[in-house]
Design goal:
Layout: H1 2-53, H2 62-69, E1 78-79, E2 84-86, E3 92-94, E4 103-108, H3 113-129, E5 134-139, H4 148-158, E6 164-166, H5 171-176, E7 183-187, E8 192-198, H6 203-215
Length: about 220
């Protein structure tokens, strides 16, 4: 009888050890699964954050869709938010420096297809109206998908004469909440936004914007 009791106790001890091993394995699995879940969530958040800030392929679809809408940015006269950019020589330039003159502000980048399609029209408008209207062609110079060098090389290769300003610290983009390009804003001589467009525009639309700010 004592041998049977010892055998039963031994079996119960082995069962307990097996239960402990299985329980330990389950907890290790749950902890590992939790860690993987956290890693995946963190990776997703990081990817989304980067893709929102740097969108080198945005001209392929998102901006192309926006260009089709050509929706008006503003129908009321609103004070234009001031911003600071740099010119070709590295001098700081502000939108408010041009108060007293109408201004056409265009946000663009050399990698943006819709932007490239409208730049010849802006260059022609600058040639015709540059003495009376200031043109601020603001390049989104984020240092990744666009640099000062790449933007300058593009403008020189295309032979454009309009002045280019580099938004190297995102000051202009932040001031106007730009999340897709191109965007054009028409500012009158008093520093008020009169009208504008989201997406690529043609020469006729540019002429319309010029007429609005020249009349103010």
């Amino acid at each position: 009888m004592e041998n049977i009791r010892n055998n039963e106790e031994a079996e119960q001890s082995e069962d307990s050890q097996v239960d402990l091993v299985n329980s330990s394995a389950k907890w290790r699995y749950m902890i590992l699964a939790g860690v993987l879940c956290v890693v995946l969530i963190a990776a997703t958040v990081a990817y989304n954050g980067l893709s929102q800030k740097y969108r080198p392929g945005q001209d392929d679809q998102a901006v192309a869709d926006s260009a089709q809408t050509q929706a008006a940015v503003n129908t009321k006269v609103t004070a234009a938010p001031d911003f600071q950019v740099t010119d070709f020589e590295g001098n700081e330039v502000r939108l408010s420096d041009f108060v007293g003159r109408p201004v056409i502000v265009n946000f663009w980048a050399s990698w943006c297809g819709p932007c490239r399609s409208e730049l010849p029209e802006f260059d022609a408008a600058y040639e015709s109206y540059g003495e009376d209207v200031a043109f601020m062609m603001v390049d989104l110079t984020d240092g990744y998908s666009e640099t000062v060098e790449s933007a300058t090389d593009f403008v020189q290769q295309e032979g454009y004469s309009f002045p280019v300003y580099y938004d190297t610290d995102g000051n202009a983009v932040t001031a106007y909440g730009i999340n897709s390009i191109p965007v054009t804003v028409a500012v009158d001589a008093d520093g008020n936004i009169v009208s504008g467009y989201i997406g690529a525009i043609d020469g006729t639309a540019i002429e319309g914007l010029l007429e609005k700010i020249k009349k103010e």
